[in-house]
Structure formats: structure tokens, C-alpha cells
Amino acid sequence: MGAGHGTGHGSAGHGHAGHGHSHGGPPAGPAAAAARRRATWILAAVLVPLGLLTLVGMVSLWPSGDRSGLQLSNPYSVAQGVTMDTGTVRTVTSEACPGASSSAASSGTSASTCSFASTQPDAGGAEVRVALNPDIVKSHGVKPGDRIRYLNLSRIQHQPQGSSAQGSSAQGGAAQQASGAPAYVFTDFVRTVPILLLAALYAVVVVAVARWRGLRALLGLGGAYAVLVAFVLPGLVEGKPPLLLALVGSTVIMMGVLYFAHGLSARTSTALLGTIFGLGVTALLAAWSTDAAYLTGVGSHDAASLVNVGGNISISGIILCGLIISGLGALNDVTITQSSAVWELYELAPHTPARKLFTSALRIGRDHIASTVYTIAFAYAGAALPLLIIVSLYDRPFLEAITSSELAEEVVRTLVGSVGLVLAIPMTTAVAVAVVKATGASRFEGRPSEAALLAGEETDRLAAGRSPRTTAGTRRGEAGSASGPDDGGAHAVATGIATATGASGVGAGARADADGADDDGVAQDDGAGEYPTRRSRRGR
After folding, report:
1. Chain segment 336-362, per-residue pLDDT in tens
2. Among 253, 290, 260, residue whose Cα is nearest residue 275
């Protein structure tokens, strides 16, 4: 059997040589190369002018940095003689508020209670008594070991004779009693360490799972924030057109993030086209809904502060820009995923018709649509949870509540972002199918079909004086030696080849069985007609 096997394979190898076939398959023909070039030129013809237009828009809209006419005081700035210090809490006590005992005695009511934190300043010196805000005490509380930031008013208050600027804990209390106001006032917690730990954990997890692509994504995220801080925000302050600012800034961010994280390829360019299409739809809906839904934004404290700043700041323009930018992450997610899905489906079945490939990829997109819509809705709901609780306590009718000034902006943001996201999926899928067919179609051009390959083998063997039955037996022996006792898939392939009638039947049977039996990871796009021969060679 060993001799017969060797002879059979030698004949097969000879047949391959005689017909000019190779196991790797010849390179793609000129038509495939022309199709790839044509698809690349089409993508370039769309994206290059778009990139140049975006660059021109960014240069023309670049903010000058002039903030004259703006009047906004910094709440974190301090007056002369006042400093912002940090320290670590040692103990927390509750006692009657200064001056409350006398007023309570005169009015006949109980004295109010204040909380104080004995804090060790980071700059050194004796502990100081820091007055705590009642809302902080009630909501979160201050515990020993917490690091806090507080105002140091001791230098501008009348201190007892001989007291230092910092003063001891007793001296600080004496100064407080004398003036009736605390010398040290809590302002905020110091969150540097936990936030840096979370950022480090986030970076480690992303890089550990996504490797270099994850690192590039993190760097791209930093670049995206740089565009927002240096271009979009100053432009809004100076009164630049918010719609153009949002579109230009978002396009720059997406071009940089996608190509930097995923590389320069037709797949990435396809995702970019889908993203830009979704951005356009989102921008049109945002521009219409901002006026139609009367999104003025004056209901929030921050918006009211910006209104009083003066200058050219437009609250409705800020809302419009926010509607467009808020959906960037989810939009990028669905387009790059959908583009990758089309490519993977094509790699698994390169001969799938375009219509069927589009339908299969769109089924994946529909599942992604549902989960992403939930993501957007829940993200906005989580961010606005305190506001939702307040609105629910008003006990207003549901329709009136969700269309109120408090919730209208969040509702419109969710709906506008979701519409742009959903429409971007079929658009991205269609473009991806067209591109993948153009760049990858005919990539097996020049390779023989499986039926032709096997027909050539049978012809060579018959010419060598071997009967079809002997040929079938030899191929069954080859497959058996390649598969071993546990490889039923290869045995099924050999059986299909041995029993098929005619070269076409042989090829069809081998392909049908190979599609279900390729347990060794041989991809379908390794070349038509190679599967049985490659399995036999590996077995040997």
C-alpha cells in the first residue's frame, strides 16, 4: 500500500505540473488587479477631496483665541490673602454652630449643629478645624483619612495676638469664635489618586486585550480631546457657526481615530464613509430639532452662567454642536464593526453573491442596532438620573414631563443620535459590499476550478494506464493516510470523490464535503480545488 500510495501521489503531482497548477495558486489575474485599483481610486476620489475640504474648513474656522468681552469669574480663584490648601482628615466632630447657642436661647429653639474636620495640612504645621458643608455631610460624609481641599481664610481674619498665619487647632477655633465665621472652609475632595488608578487600569486592560491597536486607540482618544479643546470649544466661545464647527471637528476626529487605530485600508475607508454619512444625517436632524423643539438650554445653571458671560456665545448653538458630537463614539463603533463583518463574511465565503453578502451582514447589523440604541438611551439616562428623579417627583403627566425643558434636550439627543446611527449601518454595509467585491472579487482568477483540477488529475492517471476504479482506490488510500482514525471529515471527502460520476461531480462532492469537514482550519478562500490535495499532503 505504501508503494501504491507513493506512486499515486507522484502521478498526481505530475498531473499538476503537466497542467500548470500549483497548490498555492497563481497570482490574481489582470482583471482582479484592475478591480482593486479601480476600487482604491473610487475611495480616494471620495475621501481625498473630503479630507482637503475638511482641512480648509478647519483652517478657516480656527479660533483666534480672543476672549475680550467675556466676563466670567473663576469660582476656584481666591482673593488676596486667601489660599486654597489641601490636607488629610484626622477626626470629624459635630457641635453647636458658632453663635447659634445665643440665638437659639433667645428664640427658644434648639441650636443648629455644624460638622468640623480636624485636618493635617499637606504643607505641614498644626492641625486646623475645617468647617464642612451640610450637604456634603448628608450625602457622602467626610471620614478620617480622606484628603480634602479647603479655603484658608485665617490670614484675613482677626487673629489673637501672637498667633501664626496657620494657627493651631485651638487658635483656629478661637479665631472662629471671635469672628463668628470659620477660618477654614471645605471646598472639595482631592480625587487625584483614585482617578489616576482608574485611568491606569483602563489603559492596561485596553492594551492587554487589544495590544498595539488598543494603544493606538488610546493615543487617538487623546488626539480627539485635543481637537475638542483646541478647536471646537474656543470656536463656540467666539461664536463660530456651530453646525460647521461640529461637522469639521467630528470629521477630523473620525479620520484621525479610524486610520490611526485601524490602519490605512479599504476596510477602514469604508467605515469612515459610513461614519461621515451618519454624521451628515445627525447634523441635519440636529439642526432641525434644535429649532423645532425650542432647545434654548436656559433651564440649567451652567447655561444660565454662560448667558450672563456676554460675548458671542450661543446656548442653542452649543446644544446643536453637542447633539452631533455626543453620538460620535457609538457611530464609530457600529460602522467599523459593520465594515469588519462584511470583510469577515467575504473571507469565509468569497464566492457569495453581493446581494446575499449584503443581507447576511445586515442581519448582524440589526442585532448591533438594538444593543447600541439601548447603550445610547441608558448612557443618557444614567447621566441625567438626578434630573429624572426630580422630574418624577413633580408628579406631572408622562408626555408633559418628557417634553419639558428639563428633559427635552436629553430626549432629542437620544433620538437624533439613534437615527443617524441606524441609517449608517445599511449605508456602511452597502459600501463595504461594493468595495470588498471590487477589491477581493476575482482574487481566485487564474486558479483552476476544483472540477477542472480533478478532471486533469483523472486524465493524467488514465493516460498512465490506470483505471478509474484504481484511481478512486488510490485517492481513498491517500485520504485515509491523511486523516487517521479520527479524521472523519477527510474520509468523507475521499468517499465523495471516489463515488462521484464525472469530473464535475467529483469537484462538487469534494467542495460540499470540504465545507463541513475542514477541521484543520483550511479556509475556503485558500483556492478552489486545493482542499483534497492539501489534506493528503499534510497527512503524508
Report:
1. 999 999 988 998 888 889 999 999 999
2. 253
